[in-house]
Design goal:
Number of domains: 1
Strand content: under 5%
Structural class: mainly alpha
Shape: globular
Distance between the termini: 42 Å
Helix content: 40-55%
Low-confidence stretches: none
Length: about 90
């Protein structure tokens, strides 16, 4: 039995992939991309994958809207997760 990749169910597959890595992150463009993510059945796994792939990278080296978040938002999520782990230790 072949296991399906979660990306097969991603709504962004129905668009031009370059749209999710805009050259200029205009607020309207980002809002439109996030709206697609908000309807996507694999939004959470997409975000989890992005966080794992970009782990340790500064915000400026991350790219694109992934899992309904911008590079800066993903960087903030990672920092928050790290702070919680450090506080629990």
């Amino acid at each position: 039995m072949t296991r399906r990749d979660w990306r097969d169910d991603a709504l962004c597959r129905e668009t031009d992939p370059d749209e999710f890595v805009p050259d200029v992150c205009h607020p309207t463009v980002v809002a439109d991309l996030k709206a697609i993510c908000d309807r996507c059945p694999v939004k959470q796994v997409c975000l989890t994958t992005a966080l794992a792939e970009e782990q340790g990278l500064p915000a400026q080296l991350r790219c694109g809207v992934r899992g309904g978040t911008t590079p800066r938002e993903r960087h903030a999520i990672e920092r928050s997760q790290q702070q919680k782990l450090e506080a629990a230790a």
